[in-house]
Design a protein that fits this description.
Layout: H1 2-27, H2 31-54, H3 60-82, H4 88-135, H5 146-156, H6 160-198, H7 204-209, H8 216-242, H9 255-262, E1 271-272, H10 273-288, E2 290-297, E3 300-307, E4 310-319, E5 335-340, E6 343-344, E7 350-352, H11 354-371, H12 393-400, H13 405-411, H14 415-449, H15 454-464, H16 473-487
Parallel strand pairs: 4-5
Antiparallel strand pairs: 1-7, 2-3, 3-4, 6-7
This protein binds zinc ion.
């Protein structure tokens, strides 16, 4: 896609050379002005090439957004040079503007590269952790990794002391590998900060808040209060777990077994995918007036989204297993891809766990934000046209429908089973609460302060907040999992 855009740009470039040539030969200008005109074109060419290099691997929409601006550059070029109305000052302005654009394109390109490297370093830390499970033959299946693999390993271990030992080994494996990721994240951060400053903001946070309604002080206040609640609830959960386990030092090592004991059976895959989707589309139609029409394309479901009588985009729901079948070309409309985690049940229908339904609804909420975007050239994620405080609104709202009584009725799920599913969900939420708030505080300080690196900021955020001593060193590395979701945007 990017290459196609480059080709078009090059054609435009050749066309403008021809136009220029004709204009020059028609009016017999001086040798100096011809040389200047060609120098300008060479400049434009260099600019286009720098863009092409910097954006080679970036999602097409980002490229397209730039390309639109490039067309304006070409138009300006036609006006100022090719048709003889170019005054020196206009050209000088134009070149200054181009220089700034080239410099920025290079930074954005490096930013994307450093992000990819940081994500790769985090992936290596993940594999080091999974290797621990492999050595102990506790990995549930070849594709399981991260918290899911750890959870099922901890459930299998009978002895409490062994569970705590595994938890220590798991954290240590990550700790050994996290150095590289930290260094790369620091590089990424420095580039992001540079970009924010170039665009006239005091900090990355400033840039993020510019499109929202939230003030820095408001966020700081919220985080502080939420941290206090999180610490209290976390201690309560730990005491509750410890009451069940002999000589318990690290309550979180026993959480998976605790969860299974408290709400046995809720992990079952009992929710029919087709009906789940039908219910959600019904909600979208009734509450938002947004209509989705489903079409099957191999293993993928394409949902055409219509609003106000107009077709506005496409959401493709793809199975996690199996091959991803790309569309032959990208549609010329907003398009979002959502994954569904399903398994075939006894009757050969696709079914999901409660957790997977919530994830599906959540993702569909984001996808809807994307396709309903009033801006034609949104970013790859497609949601960052929204102010930061609204990013999760539609997704959370969609997800909460799994708690509505109409959901259970539509799916014909036994009330008792649904109640257990919800209880599990609530406990899992409690389990992650402290890590979430620690990550938010860390993220906030990192982008607000604009000077310290990743490690120093984390230490400071934890120390200054009420979190200490509940959040200890291992949480630093665990929090990178949450942080990873954030490095995708420009530090939003
Ligand atoms: Zn979300």
């Amino acid at each position: 896609m990017a290459h196609e855009a480059v080709a078009t740009l090059e054609n435009d470039f050749l066309a403008s050379v021809n136009l220029l040539d004709a204009a020059i030969h028609g009016s017999r200008p001086s040798a100096g002005s011809v040389a200047r005109a060609y120098a300008n074109l060479a400049y434009l060419r260099g600019y286009c090439d720098a863009n092409a290099r910097a954006f080679e691997n970036i999602a097409p929409k980002v490229w397209r957004e730039l390309y639109i601006r490039d067309e304006q550059v070409l138009a300006a070029f036609h006006r100022s040079v090719a048709f003889g109305v170019g005054e020196e000052s206009l050209k000088a302005n134009w070149i200054t503007w181009l220089e700034a654009r080239i410099a920025e394109a290079v930074i954005v390109g490096s930013c994307e590269r450093s992000r990819r490297q940081a994500v790769e370093a985090l992936r290596l830390a993940d594999s080091a952790q999974v290797a621990v499970l492999d050595r102990l033959k506790l990995r549930p299946n070849a594709s399981a990794s991260g918290p899911v693999a750890l959870f099922s390993a901890l459930v299998q271990i009978e002895k409490g002391a062994t569970r705590e030992k595994l938890m220590r080994a798991w954290r240590a494996a990550r700790g050994e590998r996290i150095g590289d990721a930290v260094r790369l994240l620091d590089e990424h951060l420095a580039l992001n900060r540079n970009l924010a400053r170039r665009r006239g903001y005091a900090s990355v946070l400033d840039k993020t808040l510019a499109r929202g309604n939230c003030a820095e002080a408001e966020i700081a206040d919220f985080l502080e209060k939420y941290a206090a609640t999180a610490v209290e609830r976390h201690r309560h959960l730990c005491d509750w777990i410890a009451a069940d386990i002999d000589r318990c030092v690290d309550p979180l090592a026993h959480f998976p077994r605790f969860l299974v004991n408290k709400a046995d059976g809720a992990g079952v895959v009992a929710f029919d995918f087709g009906r789940c989707l039908e219910f959600l589309l019904g909600v979208f139609a009734d509450c938002l007036g947004v209509h989705g029409r489903v079409k099957q394309r191999g293993g993928i479901l394409d949902i055409e989204i219509r609003y106000d009588g107009k077709r506005c985009g496409l959401i493709s729901i793809d199975r996690l297993e199996g091959d991803w079948v790309p569309r032959r070309s990208l549609p010329d409309e907003p398009w979002a891809r959502v994954l569904r985690h399903t398994r075939l049940n006894d009757t050969g229908r696709e079914a999901m766990s409660f957790d997977a339904v919530q994830s599906l609804y959540h993702q569909c909420g984001h996808a809807l934000s994307h396709v309903l975007s009033p801006h034609p050239h949104t970013s790859a994620s497609g949601v960052d046209w929204l102010p930061a405080e609204q990013l999760e609104r539609l997704s959370t709202w969609s997800e909460m429908w799994t708690f509505d009584e109409k959901f259970g009725r539509h799916l014909e799920i036994a009330t008792e089973l649904l109640a257990r599913c919800r209880k599990i969900k609530a406990l899992e939420f409690e389990r992650g609460r402290l890590e979430r708030v620690a990550t938010s505080l860390f993220d906030f300080e990192l982008h607000r302060l604009n000077e310290r690196g990743v490690q120093a900021t984390f230490a400071m955020a934890i120390k200054s907040a009420v979190l200490s001593p509940d959040v200890t060193a291992p949480a630093v590395s665990a929090s990178f999992d949450f942080y990873r979701a954030h490095v995708g945007g420009e530090g939003a």
